[in-house]
Amino acid sequence: MNSAGIYIHIPFCKQICNYCDYHTTEKREAEIPRFVEMLLREIELTAIKFNHKWQFDSIYLGGGSPTLLSLKELEIILKILRDKFSLFKNPEITLEINPGENTLNELKSLKGLGINRLSLGFQSLDSKLLKILTRAHNQGDCVTLYENSRNAGFENISIDMLYNIPRQSVEGWLNDLKTVVKMQPEHIALYSLSAEKGTPFYTDIQNGHLSFPSVAVENEMYREGSSYLRDCGFTHYEVSHFAKREKESVHNLHYWQRDPYLAFGPSAHGFDGEKRYWNVSSLAKYIKLISQNKSPIQGSEILTDENIDNEIIMNGLRTNLGISTSFLENIDDKSIEKWDGYLDRGNGSLLLKPEFFNFADEIASDLIGEEKSATI
Ligand code: SF4
């Protein structure tokens, strides 16, 4: 029996941040009840056709800002998942949450629903940088959210931080990380800010109103930040993810181990072990399709053997799971030798040394390219 995950995409935010290219909406809270009705129907329609022997050990409520839903709405979503699918006794249930949006009592109620892991979207602790990101919160909101989360009884907290923000310095970045580490979260994720086409932030970068730090500074932020977290006892288990002992994200590990996961909500992506599929990226279309009892799946792709091999190499190098040595016969020895100083062998796997994780994509492309030519 496969262990599997469930992802739920909640496409509502109070306001859209200038750099965000996720599918979300702002100031459309009035549509939440109808969305929830359709989401429940999507889950129900999927459950009717569901014929896998998977058992689910993770649920991830992301978005968007899932806490814009009422407690009652979150409760009925979790209830239908428990009723319709076979869940582990204590699945990891993660909720994404923004600073400044929830009270201590609300956090206690969320805990009461069985949510046992929070992902806090701090992004930065520097008010000037948060302003550039058009985030509505400040450092005080981050501290309050963290303290309230602990006081509400959450024992598994992850914090998201962004680097490569215009006007951010290496020193400021490392100071922020020190403050975050002092809070003692179980998990930290570091992401490099990028300018995604179609966002106001992209326009600001294009017309020169804002500019990124240099590539050298971006690399230094990643290198120094990662090294600091490793020195503080975090396991660097994926390019962007750091966890205290046994606090790796069960849900994210499903992605990287190529386990199956169900996905619900507009723009959500799922995987059934052979096929990747994705829902329409429009709240209006999503609601319309489901209200007609039609599937919101917009497209799918059955993975070829080559796709699967490429994913194994990519995921193996981007994580401390590595590439199983039994798989290495598919890769040209010379391309592995070329990166010898960057790689380690252990536990039956070929691993990228964590200090070189920022080269993971480059090395993976190289191994994939060599592999292709070797198999032609
Ligand atoms: S809160 Fe998160 S999901 Fe919502 S707009 Fe900002 S970055 Fe995007």
Short summary of the structure?
With 376 residues, the chain is an alpha/beta fold.
Characterize the structure shown.
- With 376 residues, this protein is α/β, with parallel strands linked by helices.
- The chain has 2 domains: 3-256, TIM Barrel (Alpha-Beta Barrel), CATH 3.20.20.70; 305-375, no CATH class.
- Helices cover 40% and strands 23% of the residues.
- It binds iron/sulfur cluster.
- Iron/sulfur cluster (SF4) is lined by residues 13, 16-17, 20, 22, 24, 63-65, 98.
Features:
disordered C terminus, alpha/beta, 2 domains, globular, binds iron/sulfur cluster, TIM Barrel, about 375 residues, 13 helices
Q: Helix and strand layout, with pairings?
A:
Blueprint: E1 3-10, E2 12-13, E3 25-26, H1 32-49, E4 55-63, H2 71-84, E5 87-97, H3 104-112, E6 117-123, H4 127-132, H5 139-151, E7 157-163, H6 170-183, E8 187-192, H7 200-206, H8 215-231, E9 235-238, E10 241-243, H9 250-256, E11 261-264, E12 269-271, E13 275-279, H10 283-291, E14 297-302, H11 305-318, E15 323-324, H12 333-338, E16 343-346, E17 349-352, H13 360-375
Parallel strand pairs: 1-4, 1-11, 2-3, 4-5, 5-6, 6-7, 7-8
Antiparallel strand pairs: 8-10, 9-10, 12-13, 13-14, 15-17, 16-17
The protein binds iron/sulfur cluster.
Iron/sulfur cluster is lined by residues 13, 16-17, 20, 22, 24, 63-65, 98.
